[in-house]
């Protein structure tokens, strides 16, 4: 097999560095197939590949001391109703006493685990190391390391294959290589290592169970040299030969995402890992690489963004350090790279058949990671999936849908136990074990709006795909359950007769009140979608109840005393508060109840709120603000937020940092960059709604709009020069673009005038519109 080619250009699809990674969080490079992940260090004397697998979690069923999904045995409904009533006079309650009453200590919540480290020690090579290069090629989802030592050249390739469910590595050197290979596991589990050597290679199997909960795991490692043989040496395998060697590593557990047992009874993860490894090893390395590319490239290749980056020879860490220092071409290079990396990271951390992307995607090296590396559902899990539809990667949301569907069963108990209500809900956070109860951290324990917010993703998938079957079979049951919960739980506010959420708490901020803005906005968003969906699926009875409730619902949209959008129904906002959650703007993004083109007063208030909160914040908060400003049609401000994120909240390996590393910011910013170029939440395809002046020329291809439309836009200093639309379904398409304000050509009859036009698309149609006058830049 020919050595993989190494390209020096291609800055926008290549992360590269001129030294090995010293730090897991800041420097190592992530690869993954949604279920398994690895962090590549690229060490010379010793290579470390830190391995993760999504389902390896401590805690949950089987944990010593028991596990109750966060739910108390007795009903809390009377207490909750009483507190809710108490707040209806407009009073406030501090979260601490409420957390003492309603919060619960997490018992055996567990942590997402590292699977272990593949350590490959080298010896024999002598002399200075030169020409070192470590890279992550986003076009092929392959990490590479190359260098020379003395007169020997080394080249190593790594990828995690989705079709073959295996990490594959190939080590090539121009002279003999001497390797010692072991798999190190953390000490919170039992571990037995078995090694078998044969003619064509050797196999190591490490298996055991987590001490915490008995969850079984198994990892299989095959070493397949192209010459010579592999020997066993205690718990290690050694190789000494003048040829390339291929590694295949597979990992499994006996986890099953199934409430309430969460185990695949009878599954033998070690045997499963061996099966995976043998199946993969039945193919040549080149064949495995091709299957990986054939799987990955059609996903990654769907979208192309060109912001006018210049070619640069700077390694990625220096490219980032230089960002903002006045060279527009290299600034654009980093932005393009960051955008492509966000799409890459979503494919690498979320593929069908596994758990969704958690706070760290799929990558974790700790036994007790920050926030358990769990699923926070008061923004973070949702943000992870913001790019899925718009970046044309809808398949990556499948794990989210599976996960949320499985939460409905425990979520029904949460609704009963805490509210005596039908339907389903959960609060701040959840894990691999269907945790649905509140925790005892006063700042953030209460957020029963989480189910409605998650249900939104299902309906959005319908809006983008127009897949009526998905709506009926998957979206509607989840949405309906969330709506039934709120229909039973809303109370009449004696102050104005509206329906409100009470008790209500603005995420991680402020006192308990009745009818906080985000609570009302989320419920309004859910009901609005359910009202539409009820008609589409023919559920008249529920549709009527929802419409009646919507008519009385407080929408949570108020302008307060300093011109801000109020966070609470009572005007409590402090203009000096710079809290990272800007929950009161849910209706601007991800919701769409605030439409700046229709409601200038609310848009102005949203702007006042954002100005007061300021631009500096944690990683994910900055990412959210990119989306907010894009929705406010202020491209320069959105780009300023992106710049701040790249400078202050991005690590050398381009991971988002809260701090610490938290992947939501990568995803949120990627989605935000698309919001700057295309929006469709108001039923109109809005072309370049928030283009910053720093992006005077460019092109984006393959992004998605609601209505099953794939969009391509070219622009220059005169605005849009070409627009292409690929329509999956027949029906009207509404467009807004400055292109239609001037002379243009297009192959279809448009209705309307000026910048707003409509045409009737056919299924699988292709439409092109072009500016008809040359651009003479002034
Ligand atoms: C929410 C945020 C925190 C952090 C955590 C994982 O609670 O408010 O900032 O991102 O999630």
Describe what this molecule looks like in 3D.
It contains 17 helices and 32 strands. The chain is of the alpha+beta class and 778 residues long. The strands form seven sheets. The chain has a nine-stranded antiparallel sheet with strand order 1-6-7-8-9-16-13-12-11, covered by helices on one side. The protein has a seven-stranded antiparallel sheet with strand order 2-3-4-5-10-15-14. A six-stranded antiparallel sheet has the order 17-26-27-28-32-30, with helices on one face. Helix 1 packs across helix 9, helix 6 crosses helix 17 and helix 12 packs antiparallel against helix 13. 57% of the residues are buried. The structure holds alpha-L-fucopyranose. The site of alpha-L-fucopyranose has 13 residues, from loops.
Low-confidence stretches: 1-9
**Coarse morphology:** globular
Query: How many strand units?
Result: 32
Strand content of the residues, in percent? 15-25%
Distance between the termini: 54 Å
Strand order of the largest sheet: 1-6-7-8-9-16-13-12-11
Helix content class? 25-40%
The major pleated sheet works out as: 9 strands, antiparallel
Taking all Cα atoms into account, the compactness measure Rg is: 27 Å
Protein topology:
Elements: E1 14-17, E2 29-32, E3 36-40, E4 46-57, H1 77-86, H2 95-102, E5 112-123, E6 129-137, E7 142-149, E8 152-161, E9 166-173, E10 177-184, E11 192-197, E12 202-209, E13 216-225, E14 230-233, E15 236-241, E16 245-253, H3 269-281, H4 285-300, E17 304-306, H5 316-322, H6 328-349, E18 375-376, H7 380-384, H8 386-390, H9 398-419, E19 429-430, H10 450-465, H11 468-489, E20 491-492, E21 499-500, E22 504-506, E23 509-513, H12 517-537, H13 540-552, H14 600-613, H15 619-631, H16 635-648, H17 664-677, E24 678-679, E25 685-687, E26 698-705, E27 709-716, E28 719-727, E29 731-736, E30 744-746, E31 756-761, E32 765-771
Parallel strand pairs: 25-29
Antiparallel strand pairs: 1-6, 2-3, 3-4, 4-5, 5-10, 6-7, 7-8, 8-9, 9-16, 10-15, 11-12, 12-13, 13-16, 14-15, 17-26, 18-19, 20-21, 22-23, 24-25, 26-27, 27-28, 28-32, 29-31, 30-32
Helix pairs in contact: 1-9, 5-6, 6-17, 9-11, 10-11, 10-12, 11-12, 12-13, 15-16, 15-17, 16-17
Bound molecules: alpha-L-fucopyranose.
